[in-house]
Amino acid sequence: MAESTAGVGRRKILSALGVGGVGLAVGAGGVLSAQAVTAASQEEPAVADTVPFYGAHQAGITTAVQDRLHIAAFDVTTDSRDELIELLKEWTAAIASMTAGQEVGGDGAATEGSYEAPPEDTGEALDLSASHLTVTVGFGRSLFVDADGEDRFGLKDHLPEALNELPHFSGDQLESSRSDGDIVVQACADDPQVAVHAVRNLVRLAFGTARVRWSQLGFGRTSSTSTSQVTPRNLFGFKDGTANPKSEDEAVMDEHVWVSGAAGGSAWTNEGTYMVTRRIRMTIETWDRSSLAEQETVIGRTKKTGAPLSGGEEFTEPNFELAGRRGPLIDENSHVALAHPSRNNGVRMLRRGFNYTDGSDNLGRLDAGLFFIAFVVDPRTHYVPMQTAMAKNDLLSEYLRHTGSGLFAIPAGVSEGQYVGQGLFEAA
Ligand SMILES: C=CC1=C(C)c2cc3[nH]c(cc4nc(cc5[nH]c(cc1n2)c(C)c5CCC(=O)O)C(CCC(=O)O)=C4C)c(C)c3C=C
Ligand SMILES: [Fe+2]
């Protein structure tokens, strides 16, 4: 694992200025004072706004969800297994640096490299803090076998059964240019420029080995993954993430998120998880013309507080039996009724999605929605049945269009000296 040897790390400067991640104080003309830089060089890197990269699990799953997303899926263009492994090594080193608030490569963006060569780091995050950057890497089915089922990199015997193609769901309008991919990279941060910088630098390192198949920016989280976070709102204006399992509940994470006990060819997936991605366009204009009563019936919760329509506060358990004058207070085909564990064999999923907007279409309608991300122990039990039921019966479906889809196996975390996915390549 290459440690960043860049002179003064991005975080050191900020820390020396007493800046916790926002509002960099610079002198007139935007120049750091010599005093500040000297103090910075004596500082230890601050950790307040960094999320540890090394660990049993990859960061960006149960770590507190940040405000911004840049996610990219790659197609591997080389046939060489060695080049693929080399890329994963280079990515691991770059991710370790960037998540620590430091520049990519020993020479960084503009300080110590050759004047005649392109800088190793693209530079747009130079004056920014680490912003809780996490980068999570996963592998799609197509990394293991091609469309004819042929082995690509000697990994076929290690293709987990859970990494099957997702079935077609009723109403799907998937675009292949927004779906699938050999490798996924999810960068999350509290500053959008930090997330974009991370993906951009990984794309740059991949030149000649892998190319971007699709990517997506997300600008606002639509879930909470920690009890310390308030519930955010989605673009329909509803609180989203209320019933999400929280990472403090380790028993739930162990049962519903983390893979354990996998044997044989799939043993490398232990301590990892599966990531489902769905780009879900929301028909904002139609929704905005529907009544509040219709909106609350569709979701099954109140818009203002997020409480279930059966009563109580935001975190009160819904009572699906409670009847009103015209039937159950929570419609049996409302979104929360169909998504509730009681209707899904008790399964839970860790949602970690983001609002997105990609401008407007040629009719002037917003191309906006939810970039749904969920981490599950097994998509066959924890995603496919729920999505199947929703596609058929969910009152919310009328307002949604699924335009992109992906399923990726997320390997375990790494310790210093290892590279992401090493367990898979060493086993195969
Ligand atoms: C198949 C999984 C799910 C998809 C796809 C999905 C899309 C989606 N959801 C909302 C808005 C809300 N979802 C809420 C709860 C909720 N949703 C899912 C699953 C999917 N959602 C689950 C498992 C749950 C929790 C159910 C429970 O345990 O009670 C809510 C209510 C608040 C909350 O608990 O988060 C809202 C609001 C949208 C807009 C959307 C697609 C664009
Ligand atoms: Fe939902």
TrEMBL record:
Gene Ontology CC entries for this record: cell envelope; cytosol
Residue stretches making up the Dyp-type peroxidase C-terminal domain: 231-414
Reactions catalysed, as given in the entry: heme b + 2 H(+) = protoporphyrin IX + Fe(2+)
Gene Ontology biological process terms, A to Z: iron import into cell
Keywords: Heme, Iron, Lyase, Metal-binding, Oxidoreductase, Peroxidase, Signal
Compositionally biased tracts (Polar residues): 221-232
Domain Dyp-type peroxidase N-terminal: 58-219
EC number: 1.11.1.-
Residue segments, region Disordered: 103-123, 221-240
Molecular function (Gene Ontology), one example: ferrochelatase activity
Compartments where located: Cell envelope
Cofactor: heme b
Cofactor, how bound (note): Binds 1 heme b (iron(II)-protoporphyrin IX) group non-covalently per subunit.
Domain of life (superkingdom): Bacteria
Family the UniProt entry places it in: Belongs to the DyP-type peroxidase family.
General function of this protein: Involved in the recovery of exogenous heme iron. Extracts iron from heme while preserving the protoporphyrin ring intact.
The protein, known as: Deferrochelatase
Lineage: Bacteria, Bacillati, Actinomycetota, Actinomycetes, Micrococcales
